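#struct-pred
JK: can someone run the complex with zinc ion? inputs below
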Amino acid sequence: MGYRKNVRALRGSPDFANRSRYWAVFVHGCFWHQHPGCPRATIPTRNRAFWEAKFAANRDRDARATSALRRKGFRVVTVWECQVADAPAVKSRLSKLLKSGGVDVR
Ligand SMILES: [Zn+2]
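RT: done, structure tokens with the ligand placed:
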């Protein structure tokens, strides 16, 4: 299998990546990264302003990491925590995206 986990050498430390085949996958927690429209992406009512600022910073960092990698020619996929339970759907999304790179997604 041609990938590494937690690739710190790349912007945003993708959870999985292959630097020679130029793909990167982020697996994001729905709460911490505020998955849009997801029931897990709640905002705590206590200290709401703090959480909103924190989540905004996380989203911003995610967006900058993704665009930095794309500018370098990487194909970038974000998989959400709530989607990981649906393994076949994740597998088909990833294999579709990474097919040209010859990646065997298990
Ligand atoms: Zn989610």
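RT: quick notes.
The chain has three helices and four strands.
Residues 30, 35, 38, 40, 80-82 surround zinc ion (CB under 6 Å).
JK: thanks, will look after standup
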